[in-house]
Structure formats: C-alpha cells, structure tokens
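Re-running the complex after MR caught last week's input typo. The corrected sequence lines follow. Everything else is unchanged.
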Amino acid sequence: MRLSRRMVAAPTALVAIGLLLTACGSRAGDEAAASAESCVDTSGDTIKVGSLNSLSGTMAISEVTVRDSIRLAVEEINADGGVLGKQIQVVGEDGASDPATFAEKAEKLIRQDCVAAVFGGWTSASRKAMLPVFEDNNSLLYYPVQYEGLEASPNIFYSGATTNQQIVPALDYLKEQGTESLYLVGSDYVFPRTANSVIKAYAEANDIEILGEDYTPLGSTDFSTIVNKVRTAGADAVFNTLNGDSNVAFFREYSNAGLTAEAMPVVSVSIAEEEVGGIGVQNIEGQLTAWNYYQTVDTPENQAFVAAYKERYGDNKPTSDPMEAAYTSVYLWKETVEQAESFDVADVQAAAGGVSFAAPEGTVTINGDNNHITKTSRIGVINGDGLIDTVWESDGPIDPDPYLESYDWADGLSGN
Amino acid sequence: MDVLASQLFTGLSIGSILLLIALGLSLTFGQMGVINMAHGEFIMAGSYTAFVVQQVISSAGVSLFVSLIVGFCVGGVMGVVLEATLLKRMYHRPLDTLLVTFGVGLILQQVARDIFGAPAVNVATPEFLRGNIEVLGVVLTKSRLFILILAIVCVAILAAALKYTSMGRRIRAVVQNRDLAEVSGISSRRTDITTFFIGSGLAGVAGVALTLIGSTSPTIGQSYIVDAFLVVIAGGLGQIRGAVIAAFALGVLHAVIEYSTTASIAKVLVFVAIIIFLQVRPQGLVSVKTRSLA
Amino acid sequence: MLFVVAPAVLSDFRLNLLGKFLCFAIVAVGIGLAWGRGGMLTLGQGVFFGLGAYMMAMHMKLADAEIRSGAGALPDFMQLGGQRDLPGFWLPFTSPFATLLMIMTIPPLLALLLGMGIFKRRVKGAYFAILSQALAAAFAILLISQQNTLGGSNGISYFRTWFGFTLNDPVNKQMLYFIAAGTLLVVMLITRQLMNSRYGELLVAVRDQEERVRFLGYDPANIKLVAYVVAALWASIAGALFVPIVGIITPQDVGVLASIAFIIGVAIGGRTTLLGPVLGAIAVAWAQTTLSEQFPSAWTYAQGALFVLVVGFLPGGIASLFLLRRRKKQKEGIS
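Corrected-run output:
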C-alpha cells in the first residue's frame, strides 16, 4: 500500500507546483518574454551550420540529394578559405519525413548545437512546421525547394521558385502555344491545391477552360480512373502537380491509354532529372517540365557544378533544380555573411537585400522585401537520355512575387 | 455509356490486383490464423525480382514470364523462411504474429532501400503489353488486361489444386479442423509449410505483375497491404470464392465512387462500406460452418 | 520522483522533448489496458490521439486568430486556401470549455460506437486489429483531403498561446511539462484502480476465455467496450497535450505508422503491467530521437528488430524479466 499513497500525493504536489509556476508565466498580450538568447559561438576558427533533411522515410528519396548538394557547397567554401576566415562545420540531422520531427530537430539545432543557420526542408508541411521555431528563436532557415508561395518570413530565405517564377511562366508558355483547355492532376496536399487555384485564376483571366481537377492521396498508385477522365475530357494539355512515385503509375497509365506528348502534352512541375529514370524514359519522353534549372543548362558555373557533383557522388548521379537551389543557398548565406561581416541574425537580415551570386542557373539576387531570390524560368522537354532540354526560357531573372501582387488576375487569391 | 463501361473495366482491374494480393493472404490467414504483414514486402520482393531478372535477360517479354516463375519462388522461399524461423513458434498467438511480421516488413523495406536505393527503379514493360485495345469504344490497356487474366489464371490453378490434388485436400482439412486433421494422420507441419510457400509465392507473382502498372520502390507493399486485408476480411476467412467476390466488388465500388467524387473520398467510403457490411455479416461473405465456438 | 527532478537537470529543449514522450506514455497506458489486459490489439489509437489533438489545435488556432486580428478572424491557413467563412464544425471550438468537454467526450463516444459495432457482433481479435488499422488509414486520408478546413497534409501549426498563456515563454513550457506529468500520474492511478478492481479481473478473464465468461452470465462485449473506451479517452487527452507541447499536429502523427509506433513501446515495456508501457513508450521515443540523430537508417532496422525480438521471443516485455526475478526471490524467501 505504500506505493499507492505515494502515487496519490505526487500528482497533487505536481499540480500545486504547476499552478505556482503558472503565476509567473507570461500571459498573451504581455511583452513577449525575452526569446532565447542566441548561443552561436563565433569565437573559434569554425562556425556551425545545420543541415536538416529527411534521411529516412518516404521523402528520403529526394532530400538526400539536397543534403549532398549542401555538403558539396560547404566543402567547396571550406577549401576556398571558409566564411569570414572560419571553416564551416555542418551538423546533420534527420527530419524523418515527419513535420513534427522537423520542428523538433530544428529546435535542437538552434538551441543545443547553436548553429548560425540551417539549410534544408522539402515539403511545405516541414517548412510550415519549422517556421514558428525559427521565428521564436530568431534564427535563419534556408529553404531550397519550389513551393506554393503566399508566405514571407524574415527568418526564412527561399532559394527555390515561388509560383510566379515557375507556374505562371509555364502557363504563359502554354498560352503562347495556343492551349485553350487544361486538365489539372495533382497529389492531395498544399502545393498542388494552391498551384491549381493560381492556375484557375489565370485561366479565367485568359480564356483557358479548365476541364477537370483531380487529386489523389500521396503515394497513390492507381490512375486508371483519372486517366479515363482525362482522356474523355479531351483537353489541350494536362497540368501535372503529382509528387513522387505517383508519377510512375500516372505516366505508365497515360501512355498505355494511347495519350501522347503530341496529342495531349503533360506539363509537370515536380518531375526532375532523378525521377525520370524510375518512370522509364519511354513513358515520358517528349513531355514538358517547368523549372528554373536543368542539368543541361549551359553556363560555365553549371558545368563546374555538374562536374564537381559527379566527381564527388558518382557519374550516374544527375543534378536537378532543388539540388542546385540548395547548393546556391549555401553560397547566398556565405555572400550575405561576408556582406554583413557578421554571423548575427539581425545583421544578416539587414544585409541580405541585393546580395547576388553567380549560380549554376544564372545570376540570382536576394529580394530584401520578401527574402526570395530572382530566378530565370525555363520550360524543358524530356529527352531520350532522361535529361531535360530547355525549349523556352524567360528573358532574364524574374523578380519573386510570392503573393502575386503584381498580377491583376490574382486579386483575392491570398485571401487578403 | 462508354464511361460506365470503362469504369467497370477499371473496377475489375483494381479488383484483379486486390485479388492477386489477397489470394495468398487469404490462404495463410485462413489456414493458420497468421496475420502476415510482411506479405506486402513479399510483393516488393517480387517487384525487385522482376527488376533483377530484367537486368540479366534484356528481352522484356521473356523476362516477364521468367520473372513470374522466379518471383513465385522468391516469394515462396521468403515465406517458408519466415514461417520456419518465427511464425511456427507462435501459432497460438495470432495477434503477435501481426506485430512480428510488421517488424520483419520494416527490416525488409530498409534492406531494399540499402540494396536498390530509395528512388523507384524502372522495369520496362514488354512491347506487346504496351498500348491498348478498343472494344466497343472502351479503351482497355493491355497491361491491365494481362493482370486481369493473370489473376483469373491464378485463382483457377489454386482452386483446381485445392480441389483435386491430395495436397489440396490436406490443406482444406487443416483449414476446417486442425486437430481432427492431425488425428487423421495429416502432418499439419508439412501442410503449413506448403500453404505458406504457395501463399507467399502468390505475393511474389503479384509483385511482378505490379511492375507493369506502378513504380518499383521499397514502399510498394505498404500501399496495398491494408486494402488486401480488408478484402480477406470481407470475403471470409480462407475462402477463395469469398476473396474473389470481395475483391471485384470492392474494385468496382472504388472505381465508381472515385469517378463521381475523388480518390480520397473513395478510399474512405469503401472502408466505411466494409464496416457496415461486417455488421450484417460479421463472418464475411462466405463462411465455413463449423462447430467451433470461436 | 523522476518527473520532478527532470526539470532541474534538463535543458528547456530536452524537457520539452520529455513532455512529448510523456504524451506517448499516456497513450501507452490505454493500450496496455486494452491490449495487455483485454487482448484487443488496437492499431488505430492514432485516430483518438488525432481527434484530441485536432480539437485542441482548432481551439488554439481560433484563439490565436482572435488575438491577432480581432474576433471572428479566420486561422491563417484558411485565409491562404481562399476559405471565406469559418466552417460550421469549427464554431464550438471558440469556447475553451466546450473544447475541453469535447476532447473528453467525442473520442470515447466514437470508440463506444465502433466498439458496439465490432464487439457486439463478436468480430474476432484479428479482425478487430485490422479494422482498427484501416480506420487509422482512412482517418489520415480524410484529414489530408481537408486542405482548407483542417490544413491538409500541413496539419495545424503556428500557435502563439494556450488558454491565454504565451507558448514561447520557458516558464510556461515548464508548466506544460508539469501538466503532462501530472496527467500521466492521474491516468496511471485511474488505470491502476481499474486493473485491480473486479472489473479488471473480468477483463483478463475475457481475454483468456471469452466463452467461459459468457457462460457465467456476463456480456464480454460490454467488458471489452469499457477498456476500449478508456483507452480512447487516454489517447485523446494525450493528443490534446501533445499539441501545445510540440506545437504542431499533422495527419502523419495519426496515421497507420504512427499508430503502430505506439504499440512498440507497450510491447517492450511489458503489455500487461501498468508501469511497463509507460517506461517502454518513453524509452522507445527517446531511443528514436537519439539514434536517428546519429544513424538514420539504423533506426528503421532497430525498430523492426525490436518488434521481432520482443514480441516474438519476450512477449511479456522487459517487465516479465523483473517479475521473474521477483518471483524467484519470493520463492527463495519462502524456502
């Protein structure tokens, strides 16, 4: 019986302690309690940064390549003398394809490892999960993947495309080609849904008819119904925002149903070089993609990047848009830090606007208002070797406009 | 009209895939009460077998048929190994077999990831299964037609084997009453191993067939396993006839709902339909009459 | 007690992590009761956990929106999705009291309904396990498809306050930890009373010999129902605590894999005991966090191997080792 008495007493005591502490805690509306002081150590010869990517779980496929690109950039910078004379030390973490884990690990990197900045994240869910952590602790995240826009945080630098640098140019291109009707197919999560609402607003303003809109659960592998719908709808083109393995099943079904790139082209915004192999080149050859970077981009910076990547990770490894954006993000951080001559978050934020870097995709510049970067948009066609050739590219880098404020047809999209 | 017909074909096609996967499960679950969550990973093993065979035999047509046989053996051997090392010691703990085989599945997935890499690999479809044929305005893709025929052939062979061979009679005897069968001189150990070999082999065959329509990646089995178990439950334990009806019924139901709503809603509604169905027939569509209380 | 010492020695970050583990431990207590004592392998606890978590998250989101942009404001993700009005089912969650009430009632009611359907129809153990797993799968898919009203795969996150207390204040975070620890102890206490009561003995009897209990004049379905409902309640409460501590809830935390991950700690700790599941859940969650920091792929192997080894070869879990020793000692004492 001694055990049971102790167990009754303990919770009572705990509740009492809890109530006591409550009295000291701050209420909403009070001045926010001093958020945790930065513990970044800038005294030694090294500076720590975090690399937070899913190394296990469903997203590992894509995110491991991003981690490799971050490492490559760090190694190059270190070989070149480091940042402000300090060697960069990477603390790697696994986000395990789970948003809650991303939040937890981000906090660990900031509070426990005291990193100066974190590079990584892929899914919108992981970014949304990390956002409050970086804001609360006033630290920096460099996020390298194209995403659905409608966001701008002073604590996140977005080195991937927002909608007006990827989806809007793709629509412009389709319109130029005489497309009058579209069918929308996507995975069921935030990027396809937001992308499609942008597409619908654009379509309405430009007399393009939307013949259908379908979403499948992530990882879905049965597309016969959707392909049936697409086939009977007879649209001029299909806009594809499917993610990951679903693309394999979709394109197999699509080509088996007798639909071809000539008759009904598919524009994909989530298929990069490394996915083409799994889909099978014969199923997807001739279809279109919209990105900012392809391995075949013809710049001296890109030739150096591709050569370095293959040298480091193997000849059969292609480079892709998110990898390039991750690589670029490390350099952007370095340039900004050197501009600010400080690792301090406030200094970096203040110095960021206008910082530019000659990236593999062409020169990119940070927009100080929204922390996104300028990017050149490119439409590509998948060739017989599984690589992507550019068939169209924007006149120059496009200014980032995450809230699509400069487009009349997008009024009311952001809910404001 | 042709929309209805093509959705019917789609439904049958989904049903045939479910059937291929559930057939083996129905056998092992029905006879031994073993809930083999690693069944999904045997499917994955079948898929990767097709990939490996295709690296050796470059002709996609020949390699498909070779893979079907090799896939059956690979799946079967994995099943027997699992049975002999782990499951035989826990027949009286069916719920625990679920967890143990789930663990085995996790390990197999990671093994596949470490060997073949996390990204999907490509298994080429043979030339004669590419494209489609049109019947009365309905487009039937050849690869789905092939899987439908394959499923029917598998069911026919299995049914014939159970009915006419002595091994089949032994299996049926053990399914109906294990103790009585043993008393009658049937070695239930040997029957168990045979059943497991066939059941897991069928998973391998399903895996090979799936490479025709989907991606070959470490998580391929996971996406089918829950659905397959629902088919087994709805069909009735260990009843091939029940599994066939349940698989096709669920397939068609899914196709029809998906056409009029969305894929997500279809998945949820099919599940709800099964729960309601079990209220009416808790023992499943087809059930054996026994005197046992449980 | 260990829980009281922890805040003094752990950093804020680690303490918060421990708070999260305590939430898992609360779920584990319920699973221990339903599965260990009642023989019902519930692979769908994520559903009840998720219900509790989402209800709490909805309330917090509404409260935040009000603080930020005045009464009647929409949560941020709805605005982004183009939603103009608050969906009807969000309305009750403006009231903190109603939210708490619903967290305590809706999941148990759902469990009651499901349980009636399943147990009364005498659906067997294996069927129950698979159905509960399918339920978790369906629930996650449903959540994901509700992009505009429930955040879809992004889930609900970005909270500032919890019942008026700012969340990024370290003192309040400590308070949350204490609340979780206190709740866990209360939950354990109630479960202990249940296990040691006459009802607890009936429950074990139903697990071991359902037919005999039926012949004795009891309805095994009712006995199972109680354990299932209690387990659902514990999961719901744990979910409601999880949200302010972790700061996010997504469909991934409630789906099939998350649900089965709850089981492993219970199995390792010892499913039939009271303390086993608690310590098991904390140990497994802790091992996952630390192991995956160093060897991400090794954790998957470890998880798989744990299932195989513990469930296959040591079904009583670690607790059975202690029980064995104690029994041995008792025997020695007698002789």
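None of the earlier attempt is carried over here. Chain B has one domain: 1-280. Chain B touches chain A through 39 residues (CB under 8 Å).
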